[in-house]
Write a structure and sequence with these properties.
Helix content: 10-25%
Structural class: alpha/beta
Strand order of the largest sheet: 1-2-3-4-5-6
Number of strands: 13
Radius of gyration: 16 Å
Order of helices and strands: EEEHEHHEEEEEEEEHEH
Largest sheet: 6 strands, mixed
């Protein structure tokens, strides 16, 4: 187990409305989270949120006393529009930032600037890439040297409980399950989710979720 992480990550939280019929019979409202992660040379932004996210990201930059020019890198966990919708706005405001994503998702993301592909064990600043395909072919999770694991949409939380991503939005459920097993073996201190707030004992929760599936 890694030492307890005190890293100050600034979340950017937006609301996503999914109309009835897309993910079930009722309309769903869920949060979508991006993260500003400090490093010695500035800030790394994980995901860019929904289209129109610039104001929410600007407010988060204000909260940490930073500017758009402090964003050196943007790492996209996967290509779904609620995670890359704001990319154009971010690129416009942080034109010098390098934009990264999982190699298998590069072709799915419309971008005015070249996307840099990432594979297993690649590093961006203080983060190591963990390939966690399933939700999308190129989905990645990000393990920070400080013991934080950013899991993207590999798994989320709702009502204090860990939940798998909806099957309708998951490209390959079997691979997604293998990726969850991999994440459960990493033993990070904290997990940060693209959908849902942090919960205590995330590794224990994830192992319980996986065990329930085996019964």
């Amino acid at each position: 187990m890694m030492g307890h992480s005190q890293m100050q990550v600034e979340p950017v939280i937006q609301e996503l409305h999914i109309p009835a019929g897309l993910a079930g019979t009722v309309e769903l409202t869920m949060d979508v989270r991006c993260f500003l992660v400090p490093h010695t040379g500035g800030l790394l932004l994980i995901d860019t949120g929904l289209k129109g996210s610039a104001d929410a990201i600007a407010a988060a930059l204000d909260r940490v006393g930073a500017a758009w020019s402090d964003i050196t890198d943007v790492v996209l966990t996967h290509w779904h529009p609620d995670h890359v919708g704001g990319l154009g706005e971010v690129v416009e405001r942080s034109p010098l930032a390098a934009i990264w994503t999982g190699a298998a998702d590069v072709s799915q993301i419309p971008s005015a600037v070249p996307l840099r592909p990432l594979v297993e064990r690649d590093r961006v600043r203080d983060i190591q890439i963990v390939q966690t395909p399933g939700h999308t072919a190129g989905h990645i999770s990000l393990l920070h040297d400080d013991g934080l694991l950013f899991v993207g949409d590999a798994v989320g939380t709702a009502g204090g409980v860990m939940r798998r991503a909806p099957e309708q939005f998951t490209a390959d459920s079997a691979r997604a399950e293998e990726s969850l097993l991999r994440l459960s073996l990493l033993e990070p201190d904290r997990m940060l989710f693209s959908h849902g707030p942090e919960i205590p004992d995330p590794v224990g929760e994830l192992r319980r979720l996986l065990a329930v599936n085996e019964d």
